[in-house]
Each structure stands twice: as structure tokens, then as C-alpha cells.
Amino acid sequence: MDPTELPLDSAAPSKRGQKAQYVVELLAYDQTTVSPKNPRFGYIITDESVAPLVAELKAVGQAHDAIGERGPGGIVEILAGSRRREGCRILGTPLRARVYDEGSLTPEQALKIANREDRGALEVSLWDRSASWARMLDGKIVTNEARLADAVGEDKSAINRGLALQKAPAVILDLVADKRAISMSQWALVAPLLEDDESRARVLECAALHAGQTFGFTALTKKLTAAAAGKDEIRPVEVRNRHGRVIATVAPDHRGAFVIRVKSMAEQHPSFRLDHAKLIHTVFVDVLKDWFGDG
Questions:
Q1: Whole-number pLDDT of residue 11
Q2: In DSSP terms, which residues pair with 20 in a beta bridge?
Q3: Torsions phi, psi of 81, nearest 5?
Q4: Model pTM?
Q5: How close are the terminal C-alpha atoms of the chain, in Å?
């Protein structure tokens, strides 16, 4: 064993410059488990998914220590290194890990270590990350969302969005072909549809009509957004000049708000700018009439 120490940025350190002690140990597979604080807790790791890592371990050995904390019964709970753990299992070699004594880390410290070390690994899906966030809060491991955001290195708005994904109605999630493929930017398009009671009811009704089917999330977003607006389909409307070139688009959203995107007119003659503005205005009026059903 090689005793050493690692300075930590505790969310609320008891003393300035406080350090937590760890030792480096070689651990058999059955002496370890994956910690609930690990972003990959519950993540399915197959022999095929870690094959490149196994080849690397076989060729050059374990370059980076896993990190864990000793849990009840002496089992080491791996905060970072779950894939290395499986790779060592396949090779029949012990896992080298930095091990902190039980209780030597606060939950926030452990989460900071787990998420900091995971930054350089394969990306964890929003679905798995948000499941981890919900687990930390539900289990009272972290007391509130602000402290959780600090511990995992995320913006509080991202935490809120991720938790909303975990609470999304099953009737919607059951339509998603692969929940792990949902990105934060994609979910940000659907989450607002569920915030208003009227649009939420329309979205759930639409989802129920498609029960038993699965969609890519982009295609599903289009269906749900149109349903929230009470429409069959929502498409941006192109504005074209007399030469057939697109000079602007008018894009409605589910709330009846409109975004007009105009291509740069900086290099155009002033008379063309005015003509284009008139064209855009005419198309926008037609879009408004069509959207709201006004004659």
C-alpha cells in the first residue's frame, strides 16, 4: 500500500486546506461494487463495449487508478472506474484503486471526485446522468439542487431539466426508441410543452394515440410540438424573392409565438431591402391568418 493524500474542493470544508487520506490498493472484483454516486451506476457494461479498453489494459496495463471509498463491510464502492473494473474482471487481474476510508469524504466531495474523473471518459447520456441526480436527491445524499449542481459541475438549470426528464410521463417516454440518445438540447424542446396544462393535455393525448410505436426523438418532438399547438404539423414558412431565393423564414412555435429569421441585407441595394421587407411582411400576415384561422 502506498499512503498518500489528495487536496479536495469541498462544498463546505471544515478547515482551510483540509485533505482527505487515501491508500492505493489492488482489489479483486468481488471486493468492489459500483457506488450509487458514480455517474455510471446502473449503466449496462458489456464485454463488447469494453473490448477496446481490455486491449489497452492487456497491452500497457492500467494507466490510471480507479477511485473508491470503503463502504459497509469493507467493500470498496467505485466512484470512478466502473469500466476499468469490468476490464480487469475480463483479464482476471486486480483493479488498482485509490481508496478513501469510510466516512472520510462528504457526499459532495465524493460526487465531485466521481464527476471530475468521469469528464475524460466516454460521455454519459443525459438519461443516465439525470437518473443519478434524482437518486442523489431522493436518497438525501445531497440536500438540495444547488449543492448537487455544485457537486456534479453542472448549471442548476441543467439539473432542473434533467430531473424533469426523469419525471416525464411514461406515455411519452415509451414512444422514444432510445432514451439514452436524448440530448439536453432535444429535451429542451419538449419540456416546455408539458409546463402548461392545456398544451400538456394535448401532448399526452397525442402520445396515447401512438401507444405501442417508437420514434426517433426528433420525429417525436415534431409530433408533440404540433399537438401542443392544436395543429397536425408545424413547419417554418419560407419567404422567397422574385428569383426564387429564400430571403427569410417565419417559424411558429407551439404557443403561437413566431420567429422571423431574415438573411443579411447588408450588401443589397436599398430598394431591394425595402422590397424584401414588404415580401416578408406579406408572408407573415398570411402565416398569422392561417395559424389563428382569421379571414
A1: 37
A2: 6
A3: 125, 25
A4: 0.66
A5: 82
